[in-house]
Structures are given as C-alpha cells and as structure tokens.
Amino acid sequence: MSDDSVTRETVLDLDPEEAWHAVTDAEQLEQWLADEVEIDLVEGGDLRVRFDDGRERHGTVEEVAAPERVVFRWHPVPEIELETVVSIELEPAEDGTRVTVVETGFETLPVASTQACAAVNAWAWEARLEAAAGPVMIAA
Amino acid sequence: MTADAVGATFAALADPTRRHVIDLLADREAVTASELARDLPITRQAVAKHLATLADAGLVTSQRSGRETRYRLTPAPLTDARRWIDNVGAEWESRLARLAKHAKRSL
Asked: Tell me, what's the ipTM?
C-alpha cells in the first residue's frame, strides 16, 4: 500500500509535435481519453471529460510545456474531494514518441490508510479460510 | 463496482473515527455500539450514528438479538474500493492502447 502512483507508457508512431497534438487537443483526446473532452490548454485552465455512461470528471490544467509535458489535476471520484495529478510526458523514441503517464495522489484515499488496509487484510484472511474470495490486497 | 459505490465507500471512510470503528470491527466477531464506545472517545449515540453511515455504505451489517444490536464488518466495499485503485493502471493501459491505435490510423 506504499506506492501511491500509477505509471504507464506507450510509444506512438508520431513525431513529438504530432504526439503533443494527440495528448492536448480536445478532439484528439476524444479519440482515446474520454468520449467528450473540453480543455483550456493554459495553466489554471479548465478540464472537463465525460464518458458515454454518464460519468464526468472535472479538473484543472497545471502545467503546459509543449511539446514535452502536460500536467493536470482531476477528481476521479465525483462524490469526494480526492484530487489526483496526471502528468503526461513526451520524449523522442527510436521509432516515434514515447508517452509516459504518471497519476499520483492515491495516498489520500482513506482506503489506502493503514487502518482500512488492516481491516481488508483481516477480512481477506477470514475469506481465505472460508475459501470465499479471490485475491484481495494487491499492492497498488 | 460503480464509481458511485466507490464514492460512497470513500466518503464513509473519510472520517477518522469511522476508520477507527472499521479497525475495531476488523478485530472482532460482532459487537454492540456500547462495546465499541468503550474503546472510543465518543458516546454510544455517536458510535451508533457512525455505524449507520457505515451501514449505508455497505461496510457494516447489524443483527438484532433480544435487546442487543450487534454489528459486524462487511468489508467487500473496501476490497472493491481497493480494486478500483488498482484498476486505475488498467484504465490508463487501455487509454494508451486506444491512443497508439489512433496514432497509427491518423498517419
């Protein structure tokens, strides 16, 4: 439960300028990030994403460093205050442009707390005894 | 699990006293609000209120026997919430896969 960030990467068949467009332009973002995207690409600008199932996320652009890095904060769970930070970094790769996404801030989630974790573990143990559940505590 | 349910779980757990209640329940079989109140710096009534909130989020179930109501932890929502965090990585994976596919197409 100590690791509070998620990192994923891919390499795009695009040069950095094109890749920058793909990760910052609303219409492009609608091809892969969410079904509807509104982004004001300036520091402090609004970010709104909507999914076809009705979910919405609101956020704020934190940093715009074309064509290398865009950082935004958003609220992954609408009902609670939780805010995570998503950083999208671009760097030239041999066969295109590498995109690295790092999302941080999950340590503020109450379920990531030691107590809640202990509770889940206690229950997981019980569940194992009853052979009633699958894997439970997967490290973040 | 829906984002709404995860939100309800996180909201219920946002309060440190409720997390403490969860912690106490995790160690025991089934307890009354009075028993919990002995281990907490709050009244039985306040404990009952927190238990009600936890019950609404599906984290606690109660059972009446005679004059007593006993509470026990039903931690499935905790596990779901935990899985939700683990799922964040999987979500980015599929988003980036879509992006890579889209990038190929647009060439």
From this structure: 0.79
